[in-house]
Amino acid sequence: MDAIYKHLRNHTNVISKVCEEQGEAIRCAADLVIERLADGGKLLIMGNGGSAADAQHFAAELVGRFRRHRKALPAIALTTDSSILTAVSNDYGFEAVFQRQIEALAQKGDVVCGISTSGNSPNVVQAMETARAHGCSTLCLTGQGGGRIAEITDRVIVVPADEVPFIQETHLIIIHILCGLIEDALT
């Protein structure tokens, strides 16, 4: 039982820190996505491992529904097409797997969202650099101080934790907050 209580206490501490330190960053990120979607842009989301799952979850909540029935919102998880992922990885290296998709799909006025617990995933960093070069707005969800991605992104939400499980758990809460704010504004 001690391990259970310890995990829950640590999780609660991280959430408390996010409330104190990241509320404005979450609001600014939501405002950016709302503005771009309202102007006809789309949201392109990426990450590796658990962050890939978070990217897919984020896109699904916007394309499907979060709390209520509404018009579908344009969001694409760049983590889902196994043919693209394996072909690009094979031909260009795994570092280019998201960058090539940004090059193909992103347009000025879109928002590109990178999710990385460390903030240093080379394939996410490379894609964010490409997104900026294409005139896209950029947003990242990260932890562990922000990493390289935080240095090159327009809107940054940093979970103040070093342990991956707590960062990932908190990213999901932040994604749900963003979805609620986006849905409320665009319906």
Overview of this structure, please?
The chain is of the alpha/beta class and 187 residues long. Helix content is 58%, strand content 14%. It has eight helices and five strands; from the N terminus they run ααβαβααβαβαβα. The chain has helices at 2-21, 23-38, 50-63, 82-92, 99-105, 122-133, 147-151, 164-186; strands at residues 43-47, 75-77, 111-116, 137-143, 155-159. The chain starts with a helix and ends with a helix. The model has no long low-confidence stretch (mean pLDDT 97).
Give a quick set of tags describing it.
187 residues; alpha/beta; 5-stranded parallel β-sheet; 58% helix; globular
Shape: globular
Report the radius of gyration as a whole number of Å.
16 Å
**Percent helix among the residues?**
55-70%
Structural class: alpha/beta
**Uncertain runs with pLDDT below 50, 5 residues or more?**
none
Distance between the termini: 44 Å
Strand order of the largest sheet: 2-1-3-4-5
Count of helical regions: 8
Q: What summary fits the major beta sheet?
A: 5 strands, parallel
Order of helices and strands: HHEHEHHEHEHEH
What's the rounded overall pLDDT mean? 97
Oligomer: single chain
Count the beta strands. 5
Beta-strand percent range: 5-15%
